[in-house]
Model the fold of this input.
Amino acid sequence: MLDHSRLMSKQHSDGGWGLVPIQSRAGRFSSYDVADFEPVTTFDAEWKYTPIKSLGALLDGELDGSRYDFTIDADGVTAEWAARTDARIGSVSTPEERGSANAWTRFQDALVITVTGDEPVRATVARSALGTTARAAHTIIDAKPNSNGIVILDNSGEVHLSENVEISVGDGARLTVVSVQDWAPTGIHLATHFAKIGRDAFLKHVVVSLDGSIVRVNTNAHLVGEGGDVELLGVYFADAGQHFEQQVFIDHDAPHTKSRSSYRGALQGQDARAVWIGDVLIRPSAPGTDSYEENRNLLLTEGTRADSVPNLEIETGDIAGAGHASASGRFDDEQLFYLQSRGMPEEEARRLVVRAFLSAIIQKIGVPEIQERLEAAIEAELRGSAS
Done:
């Protein structure tokens, strides 16, 4: 039986049957404690596209929340472990679903990455030995006011992980965060990235999903300061049996804020699956907002599936602009015909079209070594599919 408490809020003042639908994306229940959430079912809006039967302990069980090994290549960026009593933990947002709450409940120490100074700095934090034990993790990226930095989270190897990443972008700061998921083929990874963007601050957040069995990286961006600006980018390439998912929430909560959200993916092989849900909320407190979101998927073979759901909620009549777009489809026959008519073999023409399609996002990342790595990975995927 459907538990209506999952979908409803408090009773309306006029009376009635005791429950009313949640009318706004901002109305979702949130808590740091996993015990406050009901067990996950396919009736839950935030889980209905996810293969929850494969997630096991990440949703319901005990998780190893101890420290893990990592390496950091940093120039002007510090990294340290902090106890969960540290005041910075929980300063950005609160979990809105059970997987995120379970990770929050189980982690012991948080990895804190701090960006300071107005000169550009950068750091690459690499994890490659997390193993197959079900784990919880918590990371904080703290960009101090007027700082300027790039932080790359480079993930590889075996994994069975649920984690939260809090990103605080201080007033006047400029921060780029790139999260690369290049896990082993059996890897399972649930992550929620919470970002808070201050006055006249800018965040570029990039999610790159290349490998793993189930990879779900959700990004929540809260624009709390006037003039805040966020650009959310994502690129992914799903092979047979892989599930890559991204649920994005952009919350405009201050005047004259701006957001751009653009995610693109390619899928090939039986049961390759991609899910993108984009929610944008423009509150009454955010006049002058300028927002646009899009998701596009290229289905390279039979047996693939892409779910793409853009949502736009506007609570003020004073906006600079707001829109969204979504498209999933196969190769453009006219493009292929044009290339073949000029002597290009069909397979090479197909690879060129895919590279051009994904390059629209790759070229925006702004980190040359990540762009080159992505292009090489995509080329390997395409050549492998042709062999």
About this structure: Residues 261 and 299 are 21 Å apart (CA to CA). The mean pLDDT is 90. Residues 332-387 form one domain.
